[in-house]
Please model this.
Amino acid sequence: MNESNIKSPGVYINELNAFPNSVVPVATAVPAFIGYTPQALYEGKSYTNVAQKITSFAEFQAIYCLPDPASPAPPAKQYSPEYYLVKQKSQPTKGDYMLIDNAYYSIVPDPNTVYYLYNSIRLFYENGGGDAYIVSVGPYGPPSKNPMNPGDQIVNANVQLNDLMNGLALLKNEQEPTMYICPEATLLSVENNGTLMQEMLLQCTEMQTAVSIFDIIGGRNPDPILYTNDIETFRNNTGSQGLNYGTAYYPFIGTTVMQNQDIDYTNLFGGDISQLGPLLNPADNPNPSVAAILSGIPSGALTVTQYNNALINASKTYSLIIKHVLTDANILPPSGAMAGVITTIDNEEGVWQAPANTSIVGVASLPIRLSESQQGNLNMDAVSGKSVNVIRFFNGLGILVWGARTLDGNSLDWKYLPIRRTMTFLEQSCKLAAHAYVFQPNDKNTWEAVKAMISSFLTSVWKQGGLQGATASDAFSVDCGLGTTMTSDDLLNGFMRVTVKVAIVHPAEFIVLSFQQQMATSS
Model:
């Protein structure tokens, strides 16, 4: 209360703040997914090219998934890739295949029907995901009605670089996302994938609020010998800017996200059952039960699910085909799952805990099992420093995330992902709290208030284990004042400078045990 405003006799109460402002910690695990969805519509409003926040998979379904038809029709398929069985002259050396009546058939998809975002969101929530942003850049495109060549990398002509770049640009208006994820980036050509990754890193550098989680082209069906070529290509295409804001995981993961009911005969040969008949009901070994089922499908007397179950029971070949297709469709890029793993680690232990040496829910296999020596060249690269985190299989332990590095692997400051994310967490938390002091008098009272506010926040982080040091003074220091962080010119120009130094906890990546023999001693 300003005493000059008091003009009449009486008793006046003047309440004073006893406690300073506090720093409210920002959220650390809010991924932003960019890609294609079954739809983007809710209550008549389009959500295409809109950065929309969701808090659960149910919200994602409500906005981005197709509505289910009325009973007794089966639920709508949200993702329906198309696969072909292509007869080969000899046993294929690349890709999945199966033997039917002494003939080899490669199992390959129509590349224009392969998408990753929907299943990546499911993996995210299976692994403990929470709040997230979705940027739908459009619906699925038309199929090409042609299979790709066995062993080739999948390039979906419906996935356009400009669509994904425009979706990424929308996130410039959002401060909350802390991870940028684009699962369908690996469906671009190598050149376009590199352009998108570099743009993601530049935007992360500009925003200073998020890191980009990358998947690697070639991780879906790696060559057991020449897989290093895919790593080299990735490193050559990520540029040199903003590397400490990026992290990559390899290889893809074999999941259990899609189940038997998600794949049926409509996913084979573009839904053309006439091409399926010769495989299940060959002339030299007829199967009357299969013939009866296939002839009844065009009538639509039963549901697709009923016909599919009938075929599974009538034909072992059909059952095996569905199993192979399901396995192939379940191979997904790991970025969505890693966003869920990071969210769980952050919630349970803190952003400073490395998201490594932990399993991934819903992962059952890997397309390649790398050894310790093979991982060495991925984890450390003397030339580029672009570390790649490997997902590995360990006997008795299962499949674990075995790496926690950024792409800036040669930097002593930023080589580790938890270091980068912890610093972002501290910076953004303090930045938002300091907004309360904009336009306040640039004097000692304000300086002390800011120092006390930030010091209190950092003390709480230190107590939780986010900073290292025997005492709080060992863990951090906060300076603000004339002659220490500011000059007289700073005051005249309206600058208040605060210097914060923190001792971040580094992960123990290499544990070295030294053993030595000693002479026996008498009791």
Notes: The chain has a mean pLDDT of 92. The chain has three domains: 31-65+116-138+148-253+332-417, 80-114+259-329, 442-523. The first helix runs from residue 57 to 64. The chain is about 30% helix and 15% strand.
